[in-house]
Amino acid sequence: MKSSLRKTLAVIAVGWTAATWAAEPTKLPKLVDLGADKCIPCKMMAPILEGLKREYAGRMDVQFIDVWKDPAPGRRYKIRLIPTQIFFDASGKELFRHEGFFGKEDILAKWKELGVDLSGRKPSAGLVRETAVAADARPREAVCVMCDENVNPKTKTVVKGQSEQRILCGPHCYFIYFSSIVGADPKAEAAKLSVTDWASGSLVPATTASYLYGMDAQGRPTIKAFADKAAAVKEQQASPGNLLGWEVLRSKELATRCAFCDRAVYPEDACGVQFGTTHGYGCCTHCSMGVAARLKQDIEVEAKDGLTGELIRVKTLDGQIASLEPASAVAWFGQKKGPDGKWVSAGCFKQGFFVNEANLQKWLEARPAMTGRQISIAQVLADKMKLSPEQIAKACKLGECK
Ligand SMILES: [Zn+2]
Ligand SMILES: [Zn+2]
């Protein structure tokens, strides 16, 4: 009586287990090791499999089958020797099998090579921010209209229009602004420009000032303007640099341009773009991809992660991504809502690439006023490739940004 009750319980227990299995088909990648507890390499596999089972619980199923005790699975899987490890994707499709001892690092490297993500992260639909987390409370005259950085009062640069004035953080942003005007007349534009005299803090005409052209720790030029050349010479003793007049400054600043939108760039801020045997620059990550569209040529882009500066390398082939390193890299498309309610690009200074979504997330947390959406780097390229030559000619020009 007692033993028949135990039998009944066992049957119920087995039945319950089977039902659970059927109700919850595995959605995880699975590693099946077919071996025997008495074979030497199989014994060496055992702690590795146990470790993987613990470490990747909920992310990968690990199963050991002893084919000496139960030969049926060995026949079913058609193994030739033990141990054999079979790699299945989450849908149950066999991806790869290996015969003999297989170490932990080799197993993990194989999953990676097979393109199976064991991180357990759900594929993200992408970060989107349609409303600023905090509005930008800075007064307008304290913010550069080009780069959106705070304006240093000692380098403030002002373009006086007929009805309004544009505040820029310094002469470099003026040259970016100048190279963004369609059909700009250099003389007429320069006549509207005032720069801040480093010595007195007052605004003076840009074309008659002297410029002390130095360099910061990152190798970026620094520009200090002086109304009085003697004051510039005095400052030169304290902080080394070359003294330049307006015309020389202008030609230096306009010498290096974005190969997509033609804006003035400093190589230190820009993305490197290789096309054929030529090396050029993209003023922002998105412009760098646009070089493939403008030149109708395969390119190689070297961009820096917006948060950490880590390198991201993209190669294109016939207008599509040929390779991306790291494969986890994502793009941020900075956008703002236009007066008609349509989303438009927020400009080159609001774009970026990141080695992964986590870096983008951190970067966004530090920029509460930023709006836009995460897109793939392939999408950045696709958006540029569909532009017509007319649209490319207007790209990033003032009032034309789409
Ligand atoms: Zn600026
Ligand atoms: Zn550009």
Description:
By secondary structure, the protein is an alpha+beta fold. The chain has helices spanning 2-23, 40-55, 71-76, 104-113, 171-178, 186-191, 229-238, 246-253, 285-295, 357-365, 377-385, 389-394; strands at 30-35, 61-66, 84-88, 94-99, 128-129, 157-160, 165-168, 193-196, 203-205, 210-215, 221-226, 242-244, 271-275, 278-282, 300-304, 311-317, 320-325, 330-337, 343-345, 352-354, 372-375. Strands 5, 18, 19, 20 and 21 form a five-stranded antiparallel beta sheet that branches. The chain has a five-stranded antiparallel beta sheet with strand order 14-13-15-16-17. The chain has a four-stranded mixed beta sheet with strand order 2-1-3-4. Helix 9 (285-295) packs across helix 11 (377-385). It is elongated. The relative contact order is 0.08. The structure holds zinc ion (2 copies). One zinc ion is lined by residues 258, 260-261, 263, 282-284, 287, 348, 396.
